[in-house]
What does this fold into?
Amino acid sequence: MKSFIGTGVALVTPFKSDKSVDYISLEKLVNHVINGGVEYLVVMGTTAENPTLSAIEKNSIIKFIVEKNAGRVPIVLGAGAADTHAVIDNINKADLTGIDAILSVTPYYNKPNQQGLYEHFSAIAKNCPIPIIMYNVPGRTGVNMTAATTLKLANTHKNIIAIKEASGNIEQIMEIIEKKPSHFEVISGDDGITLPLISVGCIGVISVVANSMIKDFSDMVRLSLAGKYNEAKTLHYKLLEFSRLIFAEGSPAGVKYALTLQGIIENHLRLPLVPISKELEEKISNWIK
It folds into this structure.
């Protein structure tokens, strides 16, 4: 888990005006976040608009990021689906060269119960050759994985090394931290509450904000982990309004606009996602200025 202490960034996928993948901007983004101080990259997460990418595009993007990263920081690969066997098949077929762990979200839309969630991740754990970070985000999937289920999985499978917790339920998150086995850690999945979650035992965050405001955000995380909360709190409140703004009309539309203002990517998304409103553009622009 030492590789995943601190700030991981869920990378966006830059597109050109014709909606093809913009590899020049992608290289700029990779260098931007690494030079800014990120501890690891997360590839093919929700922020990457991966449901809109073809299998060929996904493989090409993964290979490109691994190449441009050149071993500078660890890489986590998103591998989730509503079908357990599809997840296992995708992992088995993937070229995992340069990949340090898998990030796998709870199955979405079909709403499995807790036993179904346990068996889903157990099946993945038995068939995955590299460490697994589970991802609980009920706001997107429609189902919450309870602390009891998370702890049962952590105690059963040594290659399940962490959970990205984005339930927003701090009591649930604290129960996991309190009762977890020594090989297992909890990672914040919510930018806005990362500091308070670190204060109760999270080891860092997988962030959207860090695509754009990487230096301030990663500094805030490192200060929090070092127990320097007064200094961390200054950065936390500085970034809190930015975090609210970039999520106001959905992710990654907000952070893509911020990255456009910074000259790193162009402001294009694939349907069904669309750019943010002019009103929100003005608010983000004013905040950055």
Notes: The chain has a mean pLDDT of 97. The longest strand covers residues 160-165. The chain is about 45% helix and 15% strand. The beta strands are 6-10, 40-43, 75-78, 101-105, 132-136, 160-165, 185-188, 204-207.
